Amino acid sequence: MFDIIFGAAHAIYIAGALVGSVILWPDQTYPLHKAPEEREMVEVAGFHPQWYKADSKCHYTGLIVPYVRDWPETVRHGQEEEVLPPDLEHTAGHAVILDRKTCPGKEDEKVFLVDAVERNFGALGGGTDFHFDDPDTIKPEYKPKWLPQVMQRIERIAEHDENAKDLLETITALEHDRSAMAQVAVAASSATAADAGMAAPASAPVSASEPVTPTAKTD
Prior knowledge:
Keywords: Membrane, Transmembrane, Transmembrane helix. The chain crosses the membrane at residues 6-25. Residues 200-219 are annotated as: Disordered. The protein is of the alpha+beta class. It has one domain (6-183). Helix content is 26%, strand content 28%. The protein is built from three helices and eight strands, in the order αββββββββαα. It has helices at residues 6-14, 147-157, 162-198, and strands spanning 21-26, 43-48, 59-69, 73-77, 80-84, 87-102, 109-117, 130-133. The strands form two sheets. A six-stranded antiparallel β-sheet has the order 7-6-3-2-1-8. A two-stranded antiparallel sheet has the order 4-5. α2 packs across α3 (162-198).
């Protein structure tokens, strides 16, 4: 998973095959699994666009998944910087992974959209807007640091949880389809470049076998 080359993914994004980013609101208030013993759990969640959007009648579903900070983090204290080591003991936040978009009169659409609640208190509130992004449209250096961990957690939970299993299967199938599309995009781009390189120049030099028109002498 996540093996699509960014350039190729960007090409199919421009072609309209990827969502990119979207602002959505939770259907209701959802609990956050804050305790360590709840970390290997997921919560089903639903999201919707605002009423004035073109797809306002559509609905998105996915999972809320806890994560820990398994990367070092630099914090500033005035002019000084402190590097905090990874903290695997405490839940740092909760990722929201959406995998399905449902619209009236249309077939369900597979999506891959992510955002997060970067805290471990309160709940995921119904009045909060979320700015979801498709990871395949994000350059590797800007992808959420928690994403690999969250997907690994979903894989583990999928062994005994049907909701996690369904999401994992949907995203795996979507990534497979995108990989195939990316390969086609790369092949088409290479073929276009090759054709351009083989094209004849606009003005070819005069052949050595062609007679040269003599120039009249002038005294």
